[in-house]
């Protein structure tokens, strides 16, 4: 029985519905599984089956047959429900492992891999299992790491104004140096924890580190804008809102920017629009990040309180693959600017990319060609070493912040 049916049934008919489901599901399994199958209850809605006399070579055929059998309707309180069975399986022969606990763990690992996919069955896969173990270790270690300034840090990547070529903004990028596993990609961390409470703890830490960086810069009379990446889930939490408010008070007016990805917006446009409006009311400017990875539709953006869009680096990669794409990027940029957005182009990796930007004419440019992400001490040095930036004093930076 799928989890949704169980939850909805419980909400509508009460806990007896779940009890009846369990009894009927077990009866169904006993009825449909091959003879000599040993069945155990594993956890809610999950059963462990030891199916004898199936050899590895025949597993797939046998599983297909079993799935077919299990998909027949179950009658619960006079209503027929179609089960949606999912099987994670392991053959003791492939692993050469007779350890019962390990076998159960392998089968559970396979089941976890299959959740959220459309596949009805999946075999244990050592590589996926190792990844799962790594994810679990990292998620367990993250709360400790968040308290350790050596492990969780921010790097900052300059964004320059395309006309003046001055750095007007720094994007804060998470870095985690795990003591055993080394550098962990921020993209992976976020995707693993995004729907857990750890996401908010991480974002709170990121905002604190951004505030610290802004303070370091202000002692040097430097006030570039500071952009933090937010997960769309962050927008639902008061404590993130409060921390962002604190950050706006700690920084100069208009200095703080929040970046939110286009794909996140599409998930729940109306609710996220309210969250973004709340940020705008705090005086925070909004960047729509990775524009082009999702729908690339400019029409819905006009409904959002955003100030800028960041053209995803895939635009530049596509132009490299086929120059005809140049017109598309230039066209999107022109329309976005006409709609009142600033356009930042990401992933400007080399001189050739930089030349392409001359044609696209974005408002701002970001990429390795300008500078790689770096720790705050190096940023200060980078800003100081650029002659044309040296000429711009505090007033210069502040002037730029009022233009954007
Ligand atoms: P993003 O927000 O799109 O950040 C830009 C990514 O592109 C960064 O990767 C940056 O190092 C990389 N990059 C910059 N210039 C170039 C270039 O010229 N070429 C190439 N190939 N790459 C370039 P990074 O630091 O690995 O971050 C990956 C993603 O992780 C970020 O993508 C963002 O979505 C997420 N992320 C990073 N830090 C945070 C954070 O503090 N909070 C949240 N929620 N997400 C974060
Ligand atoms: Ca970003
Ligand atoms: Ca981006």
**Secondary structure: helix percent:** 40-55%
Radius of gyration: 27 Å
CATH superfamily of the largest domain: EAL domain
SS-based structural class?
A: alpha/beta
Brief characterization of the structure:
The protein has 404 residues and is of the alpha/beta class. It has 2 domains: 3-124, 2-Layer Sandwich (Alpha-Beta Plaits); 138-403, TIM Barrel, CATH 3.20.20.450. 49% of the residues lie in helices and 19% in strands.
Task: Note down, in words, how this protein is organized.
It is a single chain. The protein has 17 helices and 15 strands. Helix 9 links the parallel strand 10 (225-229) and strand 11 (256-261). It is α/β, with parallel strands linked by helices and 404 residues long. The termini are far apart. The chain has an eight-stranded mixed barrel, surrounded by five helices. The protein is elongated and about 75 Å long. Residues 390-404 have low confidence and may be disordered. It folds into two domains: 3-124, Alpha-Beta Plaits, CATH 3.30.70; 138-403, TIM Barrel, CATH 3.20.20. Helices cover 49% and strands 19% of the residues. Ligand C2E binds at residues 157, 172-174, 185-187, 190, 206, 229-231, 289-290, 313, 347-349, 367-368, 373.
Write the layout of secondary structure elements.
Elements: H1 3-13, H2 15-32, E1 38-43, E2 46-50, H3 59-70, E3 74-76, E4 79-81, E5 87-89, H4 92-95, H5 100-114, E6 121-123, H6 126-145, E7 152-161, E8 167-178, E9 182-184, H7 186-193, H8 198-219, E10 225-229, H9 238-250, E11 256-261, H10 262-267, H11 269-281, E12 285-291, E13 308-311, H12 314-321, H13 325-338, E14 342-345, H14 351-360, E15 364-366, H15 376-385, H16 387-390, H17 394-403
Parallel strand pairs: 5-6, 8-10, 10-11, 11-12, 12-13, 13-14, 14-15
Antiparallel strand pairs: 1-2, 3-4, 7-8, 7-15, 8-9
The structure holds ligand C2E and calcium ion (2 copies).
One calcium ion is lined by residues 171, 229, 259, 289.
